[in-house]
Every structure is written in C-alpha cells, then in structure tokens.
Write a structure and sequence with these properties.
The complex is a heterotrimer. Chain A is about 20% helix and about 15% strand. Chain A is α+β, with helices and mostly antiparallel strands. By secondary structure, chain B is of the alpha/beta class. Chain B is about 30% helix and about 20% strand. Chain C is an all-alpha fold. Chain C has 13 helices and no strands. In chain C, helix 7 packs across helix 8 and helix 8 packs antiparallel against helix 9. Chain C starts with 12 loop residues before the first helix and ends in a 9-residue tail after the last helix. The chains are: A alpha+beta, B alpha/beta, C mainly alpha.
Chain lengths: ~250, ~900, ~350
C-alpha cells in the first residue's frame, strides 16, 4: 500500500489551517513548517489571478531524498509507503534537502524552541517564555505535543533534518493526519493511493490529478485535483490604468 | 548532534525523572540520557500518551463575531487542537484557522499572570506604568473604594464600564452591577463592529442583526467588501461549503482589494472605495428595467407590462378599464373589444406589490436614473460587467446571498449604503428564502435576572442619566431598532471624557477590550484614558489600554478557562453553546463571573451589600436551589440558568434535546430546529409587515428623533452630514462618499482589511502568526506591510520591503511596502492586527513605545455614520505614502 | 622519525600563522559543532563555504594522490623520490578537508551509521567510503614508506590509490550531478569538473609546496595540461550557459574564470609558486560558484521564507572555516615535514 493525499483545490480556501494544525501536532519551531504553501499571483490588475498550493512532503514513491541519504536515515517504510526519517541515524549532511525538488525538508541549525528557554519577562506581571513552559508543562514549548513522541522526538535534536511524516503516529492509531482533520473546507482526503477503490483513488479517477513537478519522475503521493482559481472568470476587457485614480 | 551544553531540565522533565510523573518522552531529558536514547541504547520514558487518547471538551470560539461551537482537545493537561463541535449542524467538525490561533493567546508568555497596580501616576504612551504585584483582595478593595467614593459624593454616573469580546454573562458585571452602583454607562463596542450592517435589514426587513446565509442552496453570492471565506461573518461555515457551492453557484465580489473570496470568484468588481451603493443601485436598476425581479415576492405590474424604463417615472396608479386584468388571459383582443368599450376606466395600482412596500416610490425617487452607465462613472467598473452581474443575479433569484460588511457601510453615510445593498435581497426575493439570507434563528436562552430590585434611590435616578456616549443627541441619532439613541456610539466616548460633557468619568472598568487600539482616532482614546483618574481592566495582555490602567486584572481566556454561554446562528440553525474551564494559566479569574463576585464581596466588606445580595439571591443553582458561594460557582450556575431550556426535562423548547445538565455539558451545545423559510413574508416586523423599499419605519424613527430635538428631519440629516432631503431619507439612495483629506495632499485611499489569522486585535503575539502573516496574499512574513499596486509603486519609486510612512489627516504610521497586483491602483491596502506599541514580544520593537508596523486606527480619522452610530473604518480615507 | 625537532622550530612566522588559523578557526568550528549557529545558511541554502572548503581540500588531496600514483605507476623518478612528502601533503589536505566537513555536518556522532546502515545508492555514502579508504591507503603507504618497506605491494597500492582517488573525485561530482530539480546540479559534467579540478589543484599545490626544480617541472607539466582542460571545461560551460534557455538557470561559469588558468599556463615557468597559487584560487572560485549557484533558487515553499532567488555572501565564521581547513592541512604537512622528513630535508629549499 501507499498512503497518499488528495487536495481538492476548488475546495481549498487558502486559510493555512493545515499549516497551523501541523505546527501544533508536530511542534515545529519558528522559521519552517512541515506543512506549508506555494502561492502565485499572476496577471495584471484587474485581470489578476491567485493560487494557493498547500505543500508538504510528497512521500514520493521514487524519493530522491531517500536515494541520496548516506545512512538510510531517510527511508521508505515498506508497510505504509511513507517516507520517514530516523533522527538517530541522521548525520546532518543535508543531502536530502539538496536532493528534494520540493523544498519541504528543513534543518535544525539551532536547538529548536530556544526562544522558549529564555528567561526574560516582557514586563512585570508577565511570564518569561521558560516560566510559561513550566506553567503549562509542555515539552520544548507549551505546544509540545506528547503524542508526537510515540514515533518521533517531540523536540528534535540540533543538527538533524525534519519533515512531514503524514502524521505516522496518528495513522498508527487509525487517525488522519492533523492537517486533514484541521482543513475546514474538506479539501484534503487521505488514504491508500495504491488501492483503486479508496476515496483518494476515486477522486483522482473522477477529476484527474497532478502532483508537483511530476516530470522529474519522483511519483509524488500528494495529488492536486481541480483548480484553486475560478474556472469561468469574467475578466474586464478594459486595460489597467484607464480612469484608475481613486 | 545533541548539544552537550544543554543543561536545561524543565520542571516536568525533572518530575518525570523522579518518577512522579512519567509521561514525557526522554528526548527532553539530560544530554546523557538523550544520547543513549538517540543511540538506541535507552528507551523513551513511558507511557507516552497514545495519539487520540485525549479528551475533546466542548467550548465556543470568540475569535471573530461568528462564535462557532467548538471542541478543544485536552491531552496531558494542555490544550492542543480545536475543531468544530461535532454536534453542530452549522460547521460540523470544520473550523477556521482562528480556532487554533486561540492557543497562542492561552499560552502566550506575555500574558498577565497576577493582579497588579500602577505605581507611576503619569499616564501616556512610552510612560512605564510601574506595575507591581498585588493580591486579588487588594485589587478589588481598591476598586470598591473608588466606586463607593463616587456614591458618597453622589456622582455614581462617573463610573463607566466598557465591553469588548463578551459572553452571555457580561450584563451582570457591565450593566446590572453598574446600575446598582448608580451609573448608566455600560458602553459596548458594538458601534466599532458593524452596526451599520444591521441598519438596512432593520429598516427594510424588520430585524436589527446580522444575517445567516443558505450557502448550500445558493446559486449566486454577491458580496460588497465582505470576504466570507476569510473573515466575517461565518468563516467556518463558509469555508466548509464555499468550494462545493462553486459547482452550482456564481460568485461576484465587489472590493478594491483582491480578497480571498475574490480570488475564487467568477466576477471581481474592484470598484473605487466608498462607491458600493452606486453599484448596488445600478444592479437594482438593471434588475427592474429588464424585468428580473423575483415576482413571487415583489409582485408585478397589474398588466404584466414592465414600465421600468430608464429615466422615466412610473405612475402609482394607472387608469385601466375593467378588462385590463384579463389581458394576460390569452384571449384574443377581438373578443374583448365590446366589453372594453362598455366599462368605464378605473384607477388601479400600477404595480401590485406582494410582500414588499414602496417599490415604485423607490424607482421614481431614486432608481430610474441609476443606470449602469451612471454607476460605471462613479465606481470605475465596466458597464458590461455591471449588467452581466445584474442579469446573473436575476437568473439566480431567489437563491442569492448578498453580503455587506465594513467596506460598504462602515463609512460616513453608510446607513444608506446598507439599505442599498439590502434592497437587492428584497428585489431578488432572497429575504428569508431558500438559497438566500435569513435573520438569525431564535435561541431561547434562559434569562439572567435584572438588578432593578437591588437599586437604591441614588442608583435609580443616576442610572437614568444621559450616557457618556451622547447617544440620542441631535448629532447622534443612533437609531437602533427605531429608537433615537437606541444604539451605542462607542467612538464618541473619548471626546466626551476629554470635554467632560455630559460629565467627567472618574472610574472605568474595561472588560476584554482595547479601545485605545481598536477605535479609530486611537490617539484620542489614549489621551482620554490617561485623563481618567482610575481605570481597572481585565485583560489577557498588557495591551495599549492596559498600559493606561491603574489596576490590571488577569482574565481567564474565554475559550478555555471560564464558564460562559454564547449563542450564534448559521446555515438555518440557531445554536447555543457553553464555554467551560479546562485549563488554568496563572493567577487568573473568570472575567464575567469571578470578577463581579469578587467586586461584590469587596463592596460588601466596605458596607455596600446590594451587589452581593443580587448575585447570591438571583443566581441559585437551578438544579439544587443552592446559592453560589464563590465566583466559580456563580459562573457555573449562570451557565445552568441560561442553558436550562435545553436540558431541563420539563422544557418545551424545540431543537436538540438532552436529559440533564451533565449530558448537556458533554455535548456542549444546543441546536434549534431548521429555519422555517418564508415564515416572515408579510410579517417582517416592519411598519407595513412587508419588505420596505420605502421605509416607513425609518420615516417614523427619524421623525421621532427630529421631534425630540424640535427640528425638521432635513435638519437632522444636515447636522448628521447626509445629503438626502425630503423623501430620499426613507429609501435606499446614493450618497456621495465623504473623502477625508484632499486629493492633492492625500492622493491615495486607505483600505483597512481583516487578516485571516487575526482574532480581532488579538492572536498576533506568536511566531505562528508572524511566520504565516503572508497567508494573506501580498502580506509579508514577520512584517506589517501596506500593499500597493505596481503602477503606484513605480510612480512612487517603491519596491517590496521598503520602509514607508503612511500619512493621513489623523496621523501617521510606518510600515513596510509590499507591491502586489491585487490592489486597485490608487489604493493602499493594509491588514489590521499588527502595530501594537504594547501587547507582546512579537508585536513591538520596543515594548510600551514602538510597534512593529503601525495601527490602522491611528490613520483613520474618527468619524461616524451617525444614523447607526457606527464608527467609520472604510470609505474614502485619504493617505499619502512617504519613503522613510 | 626525527627526534631533533626543538621548540625553536615552531617559533616561525609560518607556524604562527598556522596557530592563529587553528585557534580562531577551531573556535568557530567548535562553536558550530556544539554550541550555536553562525553560518550564513538556511533550509534552502544549506551547503556554503565550509562545504566548499571540504570539496576544495579533498579534491586537492585527490590531485596530489593522483599525481603520486601516476609517478609510481609510470616510475617517474622526479615524482617518486618525493613520495613521502606527497603522501604527507595528501593526508594533511584530506584531514583538513575532513575537519572542515566536521564543522558542517549537523550530527557528527551519528557518523557510525555510515558503517551500520550504509546506503549504496547515495553518492555521499560512496564519497565518504571512498575517501575513508583513500585515507587508509595513504596512511598505509606512509607507514610502509617510513618503515622503508617497498616491494610487491607498491604497485597494487599505487593502482589502488589511483582508482580510489579518481573514483572519489568523480563521486563528489555525482553528489551534485545526481540531484534532480535544481538548476545547475545535473549531469556527468560536474564529475568531469571535479576530477579535472582535483588534478589542477593537486598539481598546483605540489608546485606551490614542493618548489623543487625537477618535481616542479613535472607537476608544472601536469598542471599545465590539466589547467588547459579545466579552462576548456569552464569555456564549454560559459558557452552552454550563454545559449541555455533552461528556466531558473542562473549560470555559475563566467569568462573571467579563465583568467587565472590562462595566466598560469602562460607564466607558470617564470613565477611558478605565485601562479600555482593563482591556479588554486581559480579552482576554488569555480568550485564555490557551482556549489552555491545550484542552491540559490528557492524551491517550493522555501521561496516564501527566503525569496525566490537568494544571494549568498560568506560571512566571517564561514571564511574562518576555510582558514581552519587550510590551517589543519598546513599544520599536518609542517609536522610531517618536521618530524618525518629530517633525512629528506635537504631536498627542500
């Protein structure tokens, strides 16, 4: 089998609920996200177009990051088809980052969540970040999710890479990835993309679908269906710049 | 590699290590253990909580005005995720991103953790308040002494409460106890929200409130300045249904900003700011001239002949022969000739209205000249686009949703824009109809007792004095629900305080608000609050208003730390949900139950027992009849009282049903029966019972206000800066936008927009927020940016990332420039939310002094839409861009 | 072993420079490895000057190794009589390279997994393995040379180092060349570049560090020939880039890169050490350019964090890692010369 995700671009409203839910679930620090976005604004006023593409690890069937990893720290999980990372084998060479054509792998240059260890209070009467971590009891930060710890460190070690795992810890308990549950528009469907009878396969069969940069032969398992942009947009014929003073 | 210099062992890790609380992974343990684990030589501490083993606790989100029913995921004593309440027929488990941003407020290190008092008597921006810790008892005793001093001096009206984001209990502290003290001044924030939005619906359709939309059955959505999938009014529900709706519905978005909804719309109408009503009127004009109105609702000409011709008036009555009504029967004219000659012509109503009132007057007084060509000139939109939208609306009628917000009507003269927009709802028969918009479903919560029995003579007389916001004066009609001075004029209070007119304010209790940030002319509010001798505030953070306060009370977070009851409506259902405490961070108190209790106790200690008697006697546990003994119990009992109709087995209220309070607490919410479409047709609660294009209700309300001040209605309109005279005042009509600042001095127009991640003015103090600020297209990560079109950028020599200063007649702010195609040339779009000079570490450059970016409200001049009392946020606010 | 080395031998300007380099660069390296992060990197631009330092020194060592192996196989007396010196150079440079790499790797202690959990499809694994074997071979050769054991193993060892070093240089090219989806990182061309640049820099290093007439002449000849090839490669790349319509291609080769090699080709015999240094800097320039350029275009979501195209300037800590790598190499070479080559000192100037 191979877990995969289908993102219905027509349903997506570009709200980043997926991104924030991922930050909560996976305790990613400031500066990078496992679940992120590509946005594109094109055209000239008033014929402007905008597109939001939610991005994360594509869990490529033919994963360049896995091929390039010297220690098999980045590996394909045989039973689920997930591209996973074993931080204890990671030597921090960053070959996976260079090899990944999607820019979805990040490196912990510093120990993550250092700002939460600071002991400075904004002003009298406030907590310091460290005091708030102690008050709330989180690991690394108040948002440090202990459930993440079932398969991956809640706070990652400095000098290792990290990326989306499709919430393998949740999958193991029959739950969907956090971003899927958090999507308010139901744009994200998750399932066995190798099984033609699964919901994800059915959606792809119905609407057609495309992964990102498929021409590279990576066989990504995040598939986008339909269009974010309206498909019957009426664009004014009048060129921009005419009578446009406010 | 593991940092060998890392000696951090948190308290929890220490406990885990000592075996008292072995719940966390070993990855946070000491470096040696870490190393062992990493080398595979040791196992992580057990047990790690199993994913999904936590508990979903029902609550309600108050991150915007929608107030969605939620469930919060509590694991290991902390809240992680939030989702829509699974029992909600509005959202189901769907929830917009703001629900998660609430966690940044809950676990904000810059939250206030204990009560404090001011030691530096000097107040003002940049002045360190010198806050020092005090006990809750000292805080409330000081507060009580100030209140009793006012009473002793016979001036209890000099006490004012201000409301911000509130729950269903708010009246107890802000209104009822205030009345027992003897003050009329419970000032809400409503007029800086969107009171003008309610104006059109009230005077045409008979209800003062926002609408719910039947998105699923819709065939066309038209929004004026509204961005339903990103902000206001029903984001979670809209986000859930919008994409599916696009399969069968078209969307048109009128907004000078390429908003989230515009990005997915079939028609983007990037009109000139402040001209929405011209577009609405032209749409109405085309709908009428082309015979596209919804006849089962509006009716038709007596003979079915459309007499709406551009530029021509329609006779109210037509002389018709007796057979005219039969003309459409299909019989041949020849057969009728004899009868026609035989009967004398009689006067009949030219247009037979069914469930509407005054269509022909509206046409004759206003609409006949509001051609698409006329509107194209004003709005700078192409004629063919206006015509196309009108035709598509007509084709989709009555399954049309018309959204208006902020941009359209929170403008000078916005009340009439509100009427223009809402008139389309009537023309298209979308009022109270499938696929259209409905008033909110009824939500019959149990009532909390009023305090009138506990007021003494002083209280009774002084609580009837004029309110500090001058509502009801000639220049402040604030015609909420038809009453002169019926609504609040929030924006007025700063000037009133500074001028001591009608009287000085000496004591303020501010609840969950930040008026010195959230009101336009924000600087005037800073000055006003600095002048007030004693201000108490219950707050999460040391925000701008807090920095001017004398006592700071750390408040419970509305969603996670308190009891309350919050109601909303959407998708044809009314819902009522409870907020309940699930965690507690710091020495906080619940703002709407514990704080009134503590104040009542303090007043009691000082010999004034009425408030405590009120709370003890009136808020007994409805299950046991026991009196509350503390504020937490008060909150619980109030929650039970308000929700009793939904769980008391004897209740006859419809909708979802549970058998007991305990069961209700687990479900967390009540849902009404499905909204009965068309039940209000002919019974709209207007003067005529019909949808009033010619508002008899407004005529009466304006008349009463004029009479009260012994002037003519025209004089009222003149004083309040409206252009209408005579009968125009009672119909939807075009009023020219009021431009703030001359075009030569302030050539650009400023557009204040709501950011997707903002929880109103909160939720911005976190790297989740700052790092994702660019989720609003054109915005920049970690920055506060003003977005301008490339055409303007080139003219001004600006590029993305440049530091700029925006200058308006009201003030100036600095921020970054961002060059983006999605802005109408000539406009400056800036997302609200940053620019806090006080709030937290992620919002200011130097806390208490300098913000990252700037507050839009320092730029927007203070003005009103006086008929509704609304503060002006939109319209034509001139600004100038200077390179820094 | 030379037991006559005294403290005085370390009180020289060269050692002073080396010591400063070791201390300052070492401090930066230790900070980077264990304490904090000073490098001008981010999750889109991950391999910067410290990694370039590693590539540069490793390839230079490879070049020296290849020249030596060539001498041994071809029985070129001008080379083989400097076997020990060249071995010390190759080892010193390789260890200098490894030092720079160590500051750059995030989790040095996890290196054991290269052995425990090898991934033969990874060019980096092969690079690590080949250079480890290379180091072992060089050390074996050095020990055998020190012990005066020469004989049947010499030739197989020479062939071994030739093959391993050549393969290592080609593999370094493959680390970049096998990357898909990044501008400038693709194809076998990069392996040719790394192999030839190894020879150019190795030969130039020999000229620079062993300015002994006969060897200089031989190494100079190698340098000239390979530099010509290298210049041709750069020229090919310049022409290719000029005609390329590949989207996102920034181009790392510039016509100015030819200048050091043309200069060195023409003038090597007049001022060999200076021009060898110019040649070495030219190689560094080329290696730096192609490694950095391949990462400047931000992929996917990273564009939102770092801009669509980044610009890169090494910062001082990164520059100090270059200093550290060179200082370690220089220190080891000097130590080798002082302790292991007393009987050959007369060969040196």
């Amino acid at each position: 089998m191979g877990y995969g995700m289908v993102i219905d671009q027509q349903l997506c409203v570009g709200c980043a609920a997926c991104t924030i839910a991922c930050k909560i679930e996976n305790n990613t620090p400031v500066g990078f996200n496992w679940c992120d976005k590509i946005t594109r604004t094109s055209g000239k006023f008033p014929a402007v177009r905008y597109e939001y593409i939610s991005t994360m690890c594509n869990h490529c069937e033919n994963a360049p990051c896995v091929a390039g990893c010297p220690t098999q720290a980045m590996y394909k999980d045989a039973s689920t088809g997930l591209t996973l990372h074993d931080p204890k084998k990671c030597i921090g060479c960053k070959a996976c980052i260079v090899n990944c054509p999607y820019g979805v792998i990040s490196f912990n240059w510093e120990r993550p969540h250092q700002s939460w260890t600071e002991n400075n209070r904004l002003a009298e009467g406030c907590f310091s970040p460290r005091e708030m971590v102690e008050e709330s009891g989180g690991e690394g930060s108040p948002h440090g999710n202990p459930e993440r710890g079932t398969t991956y460190p809640v706070v990652r070690a400095r000098g290792t890479v990290e990326k989306c795992t499709f919430c393998d810890h949740r999958l193991a308990k029959g739950l969907a990835p956090a971003c899927v549950d958090a999507c308010p528009s139901g744009a994200r469907q998750f399932g066995d993309i190798d099984d033609p009878s699964s919901e994800v396969s059915r959606l792809i069969a119905k609407h057609g679908g495309k992964g990102l940069r498929e021409e590279l032969g990576t066989r990504p398992r995040v598939i986008y269906i339909r269009d974010y942009k309206p498909q019957r947009r009426f664009e004014p014929a009048r060129p921009a710049g005419e009578n446009q003073g406010a | 590699m593991p940092s060998l210099f890392d000696t951090k062992v948190s308290r929890r890790a220490f406990l885990a290590g000592s075996g008292t609380l072995g719940v966390l992974t070993a990855f946070q343990l000491n470096p040696i253990t870490q190393g062992l684990v990493r080398a595979g030589l040791a196992h992580a501490a057990e047990p790690i909580p199993i994913p999904g083993s936590g508990e979903w606790v029902p609550t309600v989100c108050q991150g915007c005005t929608t107030w969605c029913m939620k469930e919060a995921y509590v694991q290991d004593g902390r809240v992680f995720h939030v989702r829509g309440n699974q029992h909600s027929k509005i959202t189901g488990k769907s929830g917009c991103v703001r629900q998660s941003m609430a966690l940044t407020e809950l676990y904000d290190p810059d939250r206030v953790r204990y009560p404090m008092k001011r030691t530096n008597p000097k107040k003002g921006r940049g002045e360190d308040p010198g806050f020092v810790r005090i006990t809750w008892e000292e805080a409330m005793d000081t507060f009580a002494e100030k209140l009793l001093d006012l009473r002793e001096r016979g001036v209890p009206e000099r006490y004012m409460t201000t409301r911000g984001r509130y729950g269903g209990f708010n009246g107890v502290m802000l209104s009822e106890i205030t009345k027992i003290i003897g003050s009329p001044n419970n000032i809400s924030h409503s007029a800086i929200c969107a009171e003008a939005d309610k104006f059109g619906p009230y005077y045409m359709e008979g209800f003062w409130g926002y609408r719910q939309y039947d998105i699923k059955a819709s065939r066309y959505q038209l929004t004026f300045g509204t961005d339903p999938i990103a902000a206001n009014r029903q984001v979670s529900f809209a986000a859930r249904e919008w994409g599916n709706m696009l399969d069968q519905a078209k969307v048109a978005v009128a907004d000078p900003r390429f908003s989230s909804s515009a990005q997915k719309a079939d028609e983007w109408l990037p009109l000139k700011p402040g001209t929405d009503s011209a577009l609405a009127l032209a749409l109405a004009h085309v709908i009428l001239t082309e015979g596209l109105w919804y006849k089962p609702f509006v009716g038709d000409f007596f003979d079915g002949q459309n007499r709406f011709v551009s530029g021509q008036t329609v006779e109210m009555e037509t002389m018709a022969d007796g057979t005219a009504n039969a003309a459409s029967d299909g019989e041949s004219a020849e057969d009728l000739t004899a009868e026609t000659e035989a009967s004398a012509p009689t006067a009949v109503a030219t247009f037979n209205e069914l469930y509407t009132h005054g269509l022909v007057q509206w046409w004759n007084l206003e609409l006949k000249d509001r051609t698409p060509e006329w509107a194209a000139e004003i709005t700078d939109l192409p004629v063919d686009q206006i015509v196309r939208v009108a035709r598509d609306l007509g084709a989709a009628a009555p399954r049309v949703g018309v959204w208006m917000s902020r941009g359209m009507h929170m403008t000078p003269r916005g009340s009439y824009a509100s009427m223009c927009g809402h008139a389309l709802v009537g023309l298209l028969g979308a009022a109270d109809n499938e696929g259209g918009s409905m008033r909110f479903s009824s939500r019959p919560v149990g009532k909390l007792a009023k305090s009138s029995d506990y007021m003494d003579e002083l209280a009774k007389t002084h609580s009837k004095m004029e309110k500090i916001d001058r509502r009801g004066r000639l220049e402040h009609p604030a015609l909420k629900e038809g009453k002169s001075g019926g609504g609040v004029v929030t924006g007025q209070i700063a000037e009133s305080i500074l001028e001591e007119d009608p009287y000085p304010i000496e004591v303020i209790y501010a609840s969950w608000n930040n008026f010195a940030y959230s009101n336009t002319g924000a600087k005037q509010f800073e000055e006003a609050f600095a002048k007030v001798p004693f201000m108490v505030i219950s707050t999460l953070n040391l925000a701008e208003t807090t920095m001017l306060a004398d006592i700071v009370l750390p408040s419970a977070h509305s969603m996670f730390e308190r009891w309350n009851v919050v109601a909303n409506s959407g998708n044809g259902y009314g819902v009522v949900g409870i907020q309940q405490p699930m965690v507690k961070v710091g020495d906080i108190r619940q703002d709407e139950s514990e704080i009134p209790w503590l104040l009542a106790e303090a007043l009691d200690r000082k010999g004034f027992s009425a408030p405590l008697e009120y709370l003890r006697n009136e808020f007994k546990d409805p299950e046991t009849g026991v009196q509350p003994t503390n504020g937490d119990e008060l909150g619980l009992y109030m929650a039970k009282i308000m929700t009793r109709p939904f769980w008391d087995p004897e209740s006859t209220v419809g909708g979802s049903k549970v058998g007991s309070w305990d069961e209700f607490r687990k479900v967390g919410m009540w849902t009404s029966d499905r909204y009965p479409f068309r039940s209000r047709w002919g019974n709209f609660g207007t003067k005529t019972g019909n949808f009033e294009f010619y508002s008899e209700g407004l005529k009466e309300a304006l008349g009463k206000h004029a009479e009260k001040h012994d002037v003519s209605i025209d004089r009222v309109l003149e004083v309040c800066n409206y252009e209408a005279r005579g009968e125009l005042a009672f119909i939807p009509h075009y009023e020219n936008p009021v431009r703030k600042g001359s075009e030569s001095e302030y050539p650009m127009l400023f557009i204040d927009a709501k950011h997707k991640l903002n929880r109103e003015g909160r939720g911005c103090n976190h790297y989740w927020y700052a790092g994702e600020r660019d989720v609003e297209p054109g915005d920049l990560k970690f920055e506060d940016a003003a977005k301008i079109n490339p055409v303007d950028a080139e003219r001004l020599g600006l590029k993305t990332g440049d530091d700029i200063r925006l200058v308006s007649p009201a003030g100036s702010i600095t921020c970054k420039a961002s060059v983006w195609e999605g802005v109408r040339p000539g406009c400056v779009v800036k997302s609200f939310g940053m620019g806090h000079w006080a709030y937290g570490r992620h919002t200011s450059v130097e806390f208490g002094k300098t913000a990252i970016g700037g507050n839009n409200n320092e730029l927007i001049p203070l003005d009103f839409d006086r008929l509704s009392g609304s503060t002006v946020f939109a319209g034509q606010n001139g600004v100038r861009i200077e390179k820094v | 072993m030379n037991s006559n080395v005294s403290l005085k031998d370390f009180l020289t300007p060269t050692w002073l420079l080396i010591a400063v380099g070791l201390v300052v660069g070492g401090a930066v390296g230790i900070h980077e490895m264990f304490i904090g992060h000073w490098f001008a990197t981010n999750s889109s631009l991950v391999w910067t000057l410290p990694l370039v330092t590693y590539i540069f020194l490793a390839l230079m060592s490879t070049g020296v190794s290849l020249v030596l192996a060539y001498g041994l196989i071809m029985h070129d007396e001008t080379i083989t009589r400097h076997t020990r010196a060249l071995l010390i150079m190759a080892i010193g440079m390789l260890l200098g390279a490894f030092t720079a790499l160590a500051t750059e790797l995030g989790s040095l202690l996890n290196m054991v997994w290269i052995l425990l959990s090898p991934n033969p499809s990874s060019p980096i694994w092969w690079m690590g393995t080949l250079y480890s074997i290379e180091l072992v071979l060089l050390i074996v050769k050095l020990i055998m040379d020190l012990r005066g054991r020469h004989g049947v193993f010499d030739l197989p060892l020479a062939w071994g180092t030739l093959i391993v070093a050549g393969a290592a240089a080609i593999t370094i090219g493959a680390v970049f060349g096998t990357v898909i989806g990044r501008p400038d990182y693709h194809g076998a061309f990069l392996s040719v570049v790394t192999l030839v640049s190894a020879l150019v820099s190795g030969a130039a290093a020999i000229v620079l560090l062993r300015p002994q007439s006969a060897l200089t002449e031989t190494a100079g000849r190698v340098f000239r020939q390979t530099a010509l090839m290298f210049a041709a490669l750069v020229l090919i790349r310049v022409v290719y880039e000029a005609h390329s319509s590949v989207v996102g291609m920034l181009g790392w080769a510039s016509v100015w890169m030819l200048v050091p090699f043309v200069l060195a080709l023409l003038l090597l015999q007049f001022a060999p050490r200076v021009l060898a240094l110019v040649g070495i800097l030219g190689v560094l320039w080329v290696q730096y350019s192609f490694i950095i350029t391949g990462q400047l275009v931000s992929l996917g979501q990273t564009a939102h964090w770092y801009g669509a195209v980044q610009s890169y300037q090494p910062n001082i800590p990164e520059a100090l890692i270059l200093v550290l790598g060179i200082a370690v190499a220089a220190a080891l070479i000097k130590l080798g010369e002082q302790y292991l080559m007393s009987n050959q000192r007369q060969d040196a100037t």
